[in-house]
Design goal:
This protein has one domain (12-108). It is 68% helix and 0% strand. It is built from 4 helices and no strands. The longest helix is centred in the last third of the chain and has 26 residues, at 83-108. The radius of gyration is 14 Å and the shape is elongated.
């Protein structure tokens, strides 16, 4: 899968928002917890676009990717009831929202 590079002159807030949109699209297209290398590849490509422009966003993205590796990995992790639902909520609702909030905060400061 080939991705188009983001413009270098893009503000950090715009870059974070763009990456959050890409991650959201991947998560929404792949809502089931099962081995899914294609979803992980798409998430890694989106994460690579963010780079290290903002430490807070990078930290949240790392946390999201850690959870995605479990979610889209081996099913043996889901022996406890509610584990996949909890991971989904962390990725889709919490961490993705935190990335979007960070983008809005930076945008309000002109970054």
């Amino acid at each position: 899968m080939r991705t188009k590079s983001l413009p270098f002159a893009m503000k950090t807030s715009e870059r974070i928002a763009h990456v959050a949109d890409r991650i959201e699209a991947v998560l929404d297209a792949n809502p089931s917890a099962h081995a899914n290398p294609a979803a992980m590849l798409a998430l890694r490509a989106a994460a690579a676009e963010l780079g290290a422009h903002d430490p807070y966003a990078s930290e949240k993205l790392i946390q999201l990717m850690e959870k995605a590796q479990v979610y889209y990995g081996a099913r043996s992790f889901f022996r406890l009831p509610g584990t996949s639902r909890h991971l989904w909520s962390d990725m889709r609702d919490d961490l993705l929202d935190r990335l979007r909030m960070r983008s809005r905060v930076l945008a309000s400061h002109g970054e």
